[in-house]
């Protein structure tokens, strides 16, 4: 059942992308800190790689991936699907807004804890086109997060809990984008 759903979704995106009339409708985004660490600054919760597919002049679907591995310390894997709408285009500037959802799994091996996290992330983005294929962007956002912690250590006191949190994120994070 799951294979059929995944294959149908992949076929749909392939079919739509083959007949898209929009030039440079695909975009790959990389966190600037991953490319030039001394110039850009980001936290360890920032997504490393993003993909955006534009279907018409106003709507784009997005997908982000996060991976962090520190040997014998921590492993984090996350995905972030979403959608955005163009609010306004002025010369080389594009202003847009949207919402992402985030699913993350973290394994803190040093403290024997596992974390599962689900977030809803509304955002506002500003993109500046440097030329036809390259741009830079920022996306300040607000998040609402549910996190569940599972302690799998052999301690007598088990620290398992869950919590809701909210706040601002992605402030000052610069993304380097390639359009094709």
Description:
- With 180 residues, the protein is mainly β.
- 12% of the residues lie in helices and 58% in strands.
- An 8-stranded antiparallel barrel has the order 1-2-3-4-5-6-7-10.
- A hairpin with a 4-residue loop joins strand 2 and strand 3.
- The mean pLDDT is 83.
Write the layout of secondary structure elements.
Elements: H1 2-18, E1 26-31, H2 32-35, E2 49-54, E3 59-70, E4 74-90, E5 93-108, E6 113-129, E7 134-138, E8 141-151, E9 161-169, E10 174-179
Give the biggest beta sheet: 8 strands, antiparallel, barrel
Total helices: the number is 2
Global geometry: elongated
- The low-confidence runs, each spanning 5 or more residues with pLDDT under 50, are none
Termini separation: 33 Å
Indicate the radius of gyration in whole angstroms: 18 Å
Q: What value does the average pLDDT take?
A: 83
Helix content: 10-25%
| Range of strand content | over 45%
Q: How are strands sequenced across the largest beta sheet?
A: 1-2-3-4-5-6-7-10
Secondary-structure element order, N to C: HEHEEEEEEEEE
State the gist of this model.
This protein is mainly beta and 180 residues long. It is built from 2 helices and 10 strands.
What attributes characterize this protein structure?
elongated, 180 residues, 10 strands, 12% helix, mainly beta, eight-stranded antiparallel barrel
């Amino acid at each position: 059942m799951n294979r059929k759903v995944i294959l149908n979704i992949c076929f749909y995106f392939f079919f739509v992308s083959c007949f898209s009339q929009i030039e440079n409708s695909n975009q790959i985004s990389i966190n600037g800190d991953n490319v030039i660490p001394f110039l850009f600054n980001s936290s360890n919760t920032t997504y490393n790689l993003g993909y955006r597919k534009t279907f018409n002049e106003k709507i784009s679907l997005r997908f982000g991936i996060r991976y962090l591995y520190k040997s014998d310390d921590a492993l984090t894997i996350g995905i972030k699907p979403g959608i955005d709408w163009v609010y306004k285009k002025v010369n080389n500037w594009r202003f847009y807004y949207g919402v992402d959802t985030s699913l993350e799994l973290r394994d803190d091996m040093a403290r024997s804890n596992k974390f599962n996290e689900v977030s809803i992330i509304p955002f506002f983005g500003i993109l500046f086109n440097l030329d036809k294929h390259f741009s830079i962007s920022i996306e300040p956002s607000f998040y609402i997060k549910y996190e569940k912690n599972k302690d799998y250590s052999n301690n007598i006191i088990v620290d398992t809990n869950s919590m809701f949190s909210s706040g601002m994120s992605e402030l000052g994070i610069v993304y380097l984008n390639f359009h094709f």
